[in-house]
Amino acid sequence: MLKTRNFAICASRRITIFIGLKRFHLANLVYTQQYHNQSSSFYSSILKSINNSTTLLQLHAQITTSGAFANSVYLSNNLKNAYINIGLISKAHKVFDQILEKNIVSWTILISGFMKRKFFYDAVGLFAEMIKNGLLPNEVTISSILPAFGNLGLNLLGKSMHCFWVRRGFEHNIVVETSLIDMYCRFGCMNIAQILFDEMPKRNVVSWNVVISGYASNGIGDCAFHTFNLMRKNGVSLDYFTIMSLLSASCRPNQGRLTIMIHGFIIGVGYYKERQIQTSLIDMYISGNFIDEAYGVFNEMVVKDVVTWTMMLKGFSTDVFKTKAIEHVREMISEHSISLDSTALVSMISCLRCSEDLPLGKLIHGIVVTRGFDKDAFVGCALIGMYAHCGESDSAKRYFDGMENRDVTCWNAMIRAMGVNGNGNDAISLLWRMEDMGFSPNESTFVSVLSACSHAGMIDEGLQIFYHMAKRRGIVPNLQHYGCLVDLLGRSGRLDDANSVIARMPFQPNSEVYGALLSACRVYGNSKVGDEIYQKLLKIDITGVGHLCSLSNLYSSLGDWEGKEMSHMVLRSKGMKKDLGYSLIEMNKQG
After folding, report:
1. CA-CA distance, 470 to 450, in Å (whole number)?
2. pTM, two decimal places
3. What is the number of domains present in the chain?
4. For the segment 86-141, what is each residue's pLDDT rounded down to a tens digit?
5. Would you say residue 63 lies in a domain?
6. Rounded alpha-carbon distances, angstroms, from residue 536 to 306, 525, 555, 577, 585
């Protein structure tokens, strides 16, 4: 048997070499000479060593013509497994369908193949068909199908499989038990997962990782770190997946000290140079608003992919890092080692928000066209928004008119572009044109139109649009729509009407709605309504420094110095302070 196997492997290597050299006639000659009339065990041996589709397809044909398939479920299973290993799941399914006497291995191999490709619904469907055919799952089948139940949230099926496992009296199996724990973690049932984990007679690093990851993904970071500490006390060596789970558990607000500690720990255990871990560290720092620390990790990376570059750019998305964001965009353009995708291009375009950015925006527009992203709707919407914010309404309109496939999102972007530049009439015209062409405006469409009317001072038109939305289109106004309506009335000085709208809202107003009216009170010097609105704001947004400053400015404009001092006292008593103002001037590409 050993001699036969060595002979098969040698033949397989020669075939692979010939195919790599595109000497197909020589590869075929080896088949003819070596494999003709061979037994199913011989073919099964050679199948385990093949790793490319051309060789496998040729061997499949040879097996078929040789008649070795006759009554050989073992050979069919091995052929099916070979197709799965090289990613040809449809071919594997065809082989499976041709097996007349399927055994539990036949079903399990294909279920596992579906799971490897994350075809969860196909795996569950095949499992159900297997049960219908009277076959009961074994340990391997159970461990294969449990992740499908977990990923699809099939609680009842998952719990039924757990009951089956218990009733059948299977002996302890670390793979099945770990799969059960993972399933319950995905269901969010961490108490059951913890009980199963505690009852395991033997645990490996995978078992520990599953529990740590489960706590992290369910937002229970403290328990994740507690489990990790127990893992260390039990002498279990951590691995790459342990680190990734810890990083996931660390992505919480106001966790600066913890973030730095995790960073130091990763360096200490020797995993810092792993690219995925460095990327996760950057994400963790950005989530906590530690942009400088994130940039430090970014600069230490030897190889940076487009995901890392884009993530770092999003970290620079606030106005404070405006200059750095533009510099980062230029570096992304000049970095030839990264392949820009639509997500990266949208992020790059979204950083360009003023007329000084227009030349760079046009350069990126050229990249969009040359790299074939000009038909991407999201990239197109970003370009329309960029031109609008740079004061180039005509350029935005030209791009919009040239789009071949315009959906509602594109129309909304163009309407917003008109509103940004105060072109309220054009925004309304686009709404009517959109409807005439058969597109149904959605909630976001009307937010954009109402906002455009507000910025253009078109009070009556805005009220008509609000009525049209609710009565003609049947769209129930949400908080954003009411916020636009309050802003619309407030900007025109109709403060009592705006206050009445707030009072009649079918749900609790948020800080944006109250803030819009408070700003209008400051503009029109109405301290009575302004103070009333601020008292309501305090109940829902006690940290609103901006709102308190608006109230202070309102008192100042009226010469009410006592009220101004009172607002400052509230600021000091709450330990709050106004963010310092700043200006940004760009000269010769330097901020």
Report:
1. 13
2. 0.75
3. 2
4. 889 999 999 999 888 899 999 999 999 999 999 999 999 999 999 999 999 999 99
5. yes
6. 46, 19, 18, 20, 38
